[in-house]
């Protein structure tokens, strides 16, 4: 049956070509052609279209192909960013960060460096955990955003980065307040005061100023009260010890023989 179908197809091809033995026509009929033009523009166009449609893995395949087949073409540079963006979009943040860093390293003068730096920061920012958890990602995100602002202060991405820095500072301040409040509730007032004063010093203006000031005042009052109570306790113990000592002295005197 397969041979019969093949013969029918072959006959149709021959008829369409005027019954001449056109091998090129037969080959093009049986061999599936590449649906994407193997040109830098064609590969980039298809990758961009797939990315916009949410087919991030397929988009990455086209961008990778462009980079490997035309490494010296200008669009290969954009393909590098496309690969990084595709990883970011599927939440593979570790791979995305590496790709953005590679872009910055390979093309240090490219106009898209601010974007790559911003996205590097975002790879950490989107992984920030709750305020009662470790804030390593917050610290890393803040560092990347500040790096961008320092290097490209006039970039539109630096404006966005400034907002993200404030967000990072707020997260860090909230974490410090959480820890300070934990100490406060457990009557570890010295440790609590250290945290609250650190927030006032390092994170002024992020939105916790009034609350922190109130807690600093209350913590200092409680420390002062503890000191007063401790001093009162020490004074009582000293008085008790002195009374006991005086009593012992009196007992000794009573036992001493008197001269007649």
Provide a descriptive summary of the structure in words.
It is a single chain. The chain has 260 residues and is mainly α. The N and C termini lie far apart (147 Å). The protein is built from 11 helices and no strands.
Poorly predicted ranges (pLDDT <50, ≥5 residues)?
1-33
Chain-averaged pLDDT: 86
Distance between the termini: 147 Å
User: How many helical stretches?
Assistant: 11
Give the structural class. mainly alpha
Using brief descriptors, characterize the structure shown.
260 residues; mainly alpha; 11 helices; rod-shaped
Offer a concise description of the structure.
The longest helix is centred in the C-terminal third of the chain and has 47 residues, at 209-255. This protein is mainly α and 260 residues long. The chain is built from eleven helices and no strands.
């Amino acid at each position: 049956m397969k041979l019969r179908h093949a013969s029918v197809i072959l006959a149709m091809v021959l008829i369409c070509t005027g019954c001449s033995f056109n091998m090129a026509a037969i080959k093009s009929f049986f061999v599936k052609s590449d649906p994407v033009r193997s040109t830098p523009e064609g590969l980039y166009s298809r990758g961009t279209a797939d990315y916009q449609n949410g087919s991030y893995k397929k988009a990455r395949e086209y961008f990778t192909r462009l980079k490997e087949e035309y490494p010296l073409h200008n669009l290969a540079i954009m393909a590098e960013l496309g690969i990084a963006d595709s990883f970011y979009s599927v939440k593979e943040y570790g791979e995305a960060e590496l790709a953005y860093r590679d872009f910055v390293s390979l093309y240090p003068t490219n106009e898209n460096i601010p974007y790559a730096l911003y996205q590097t920061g975002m790879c950490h920012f989107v992984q920030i955990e709750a305020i009662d958890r470790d804030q390593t990602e917050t610290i890393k995100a803040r560092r990347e955003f500040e790096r961008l602002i320092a290097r490209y202060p006039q970039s539109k991405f630096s404006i966005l980065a400034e907002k993200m820095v404030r967000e990072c500072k707020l997260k860090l301040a909230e974490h410090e307040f959480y820890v300070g409040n934990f100490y406060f509730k457990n009557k570890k007032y010295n440790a609590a005061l250290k945290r609250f004063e650190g927030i006032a010093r390092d994170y002024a203006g992020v939105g916790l100023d009034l609350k922190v000031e109130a807690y600093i005042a209350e913590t200092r009052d409680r420390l002062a009260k503890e000191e007063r109570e401790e001093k009162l306790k020490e004074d009582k113990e000293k008085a008790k010890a002195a009374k006991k000592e005086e009593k012992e002295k009196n007992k000794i005197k009573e036992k001493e023989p008197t001269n007649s």
